Amino acid sequence: MRKIIATVLLIGFVAFVVYGVTAYQFDETFVNGAMICLSCIGVG
Amino acid sequence: MHQRLRRIVQTIALLATNSYFAAIPAGSFYQGAAKGVCVPVLNCYACPLAWGSCPIGALQHFVIVRQFPFYVLGILGAIGVVLGRYPCGWFCPFGWFQEFVHKLPLPKFSAPNWLRHAKFVVLVVLVIAVAWWTFEPYFCKICPAGTLEGGLPWLIWKARGSEYSEGMEFATRVFGLKVVVLAGLVLLMGMMRRPFCRFVCPLGALFGLTNKVSMHRLTVDPDLCTNCGACAKNCPMDLEPQNDVGSVDCIRCLACTWCPAIRAGFIFSRGSRSRERAPARGAGVEGAT
Questions:
Q1: Among B126, B171, B175, B187, which residue's Cα sits nearest to residue B150?
Q2: Would you kindly state where each structural domain of chain A is located, as residue ranges?
Q3: Distance of CA B199 to the CA centre of its chain
Q4: Per 3-state DSSP, what percentage of chain B is helix, strand, and coil (rounded to 5)?
Q5: What domains does chain B contain, in order, with CATH numbers?
Q6: From the CB of residue B101, how many other CB atoms can be counted at a distance below 10 Å?
């Protein structure tokens, strides 16, 4: 049973990644990550 | 054996996520396409040497821009379903740092178990709810990993006159708060094992949810376990592996697998007849290890 649940979940999460990439979320992450995160540094 | 291998893997992971050494002479930071990839560890994307993005920072960003984070949750979920919380124990640079600091000669103590639930509160309240309401990544503002990997290097970059740090003012309440939080946590790291992972880390909370269904798992052989408790003494998360081997708090460091009663493996591997439930207390042979 655990094998089935894990396999279905894995397929579901991979589908999330694929959908996220097609919805330009990779680009959104790239733009956000490539800026200086002032909050992370503590100056913004 | 496992622990020596883990140290090597942790060092490789540290270098793999933070090795943009071109930033050092230039006083700059990495801005290339790899920043679109969320690393499966708590690694600040403000670190000048970082190649990838922090998944918790990216998660807050998607909450703020009102998009369901398919991409971030997909990456974390897929890795979690295969490995569980394994990345916390083997890949996370901040986890490695905590283990390193814990070697300092300070008084050691533990903390109440119920505090472990706090990381789920941090995830739901600070990472999701507060970001939703305020449009600000408040977890990042106090994140000690951000201070260590982002704040302090940028303070040095500014002192070196980096053009990228123009306009950064470090004499702020937020930066002061970040430094105080990091200093307090470093003190705690010296006195207890992995306090950030156990009580605070929202990424650990997310990965922990997958521990129960992950393909990689630990099992206890009830025929071999004597309930001697030696595995609990070794556990960096202060767990009792013999009683709850699939705990959401287990970082899969495999420190307990020196005991032949506890095995690590994938659910698809052959010959695994061990069970995940624990044997009844006192069921084993007393005194045996």
A1: B175
A2: 2-41
A3: 11
A4: 50, 5, 45
A5: 2-33+42-209 (no CATH), 216-289 (3.30.70)
A6: 18
Q: Where are the beta strands (DSSP E) in chain B?
A: 216-220, 262-266
A-B contacts (CB, under 8 Å): 151
CA gap B31, B52 in Å, rounded: 9
**Structure ipTM over 0.90, yes or no:** yes
Q: Which two tokens stand for residue B24?
A: 């050092």
Contacts A44 to B, Cβ<8 Å: 174
* B205–chain A nearest CA distance, Å: 17
pLDDT along chain B (289 residues), means of 10: 89 95 94 95 94 96 97 97 95 96 92 92 97 95 94 93 89 91 96 94 96 92 90 89 89 92 86 50 37
The closest alpha carbon to B60, from B70, B51, B69, belongs to B69
**Nearest chain A residue to B175, by CA:** A42
Q: 150-179 in B: which are within 8 Å (CB) of A?
A: 150-151, 154, 164, 168-170, 172, 174-175, 177-179
pTM of the model: 0.90
